[in-house]
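User: Here's a chain of 273 residues. Predict its fold as tokens.
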Amino acid sequence: MLSSVSKIGAFAPFASATCQNVATQLRPAVYVAQSVINEKLPERSEKLTSQSMSTAMLPKGLTKVTSGIHSTSQVRFAHTDYQVPDFSNYRKDSTANPYQTAEPSAPGRKSFSYLFAGGGAVIAAYGAKVMVQEFVVSMNASADVLALAKIEVNLGDIPEGKNLVMKWRGKPLFVRHRTQEEIDTELAVDVASLRDPQHDTERATKPDWLVLIGVCTHLGCVPIANSGDYGGYYCPCHGSHYDASGRIRKGPAPLNLEVPEHSFVSEDLLVVG
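Assistant: Prediction complete.
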């Protein structure tokens, strides 16, 4: 076997050629030569920085990586081929020039932004107020319930010594026009002797008129007016006796008859509720 190595001047560190002659009976001599790297080195006068070396050493085109049979893929170093969209048509005239300051137009642009944000806040607040109002109104009582919440009674239609029975909020309502004898009798009652102590002045805001809920405090029966041992009200179901002030005096009832909220608008008009 005969071998020879040749070197080429200043490019010896980068290029070399080897020739080998092998004599055999099976095949002729084969010439093998290594590829020569034709890479230009930067000038010595140039500063060797990372930027300069990367510019000089990296290839200018796209790097291709081939693997397998007829399969080619590309590796992109930088997205330099993308086109940046032009937004000049959407910019204001005061800010279109990148070489001119936009400070003089700043107050006007800020005023528009503040006005737009403030208007949106006002609209949102009004919408929230309407929603809350509608929600609260939906929980109010209906018109028919409000109509039954209060009732007006004409006192001129009730003679002295009589008791008017009306329906109010699904319950019987007693309005009694008391005589002077009944008033004097109830005022003379010893409060300490009562089961549910209450003075007559606490139950009748006006001595001539007594307003009561006609439901017995025992089991919810409706007492009968102007009857019983005390001339007031009597419940025949279980024998509860009330006086002319609606106070329990005898029987199983534990409490006095309820006095509803009422007011005298005038001498002849009573409002209950």
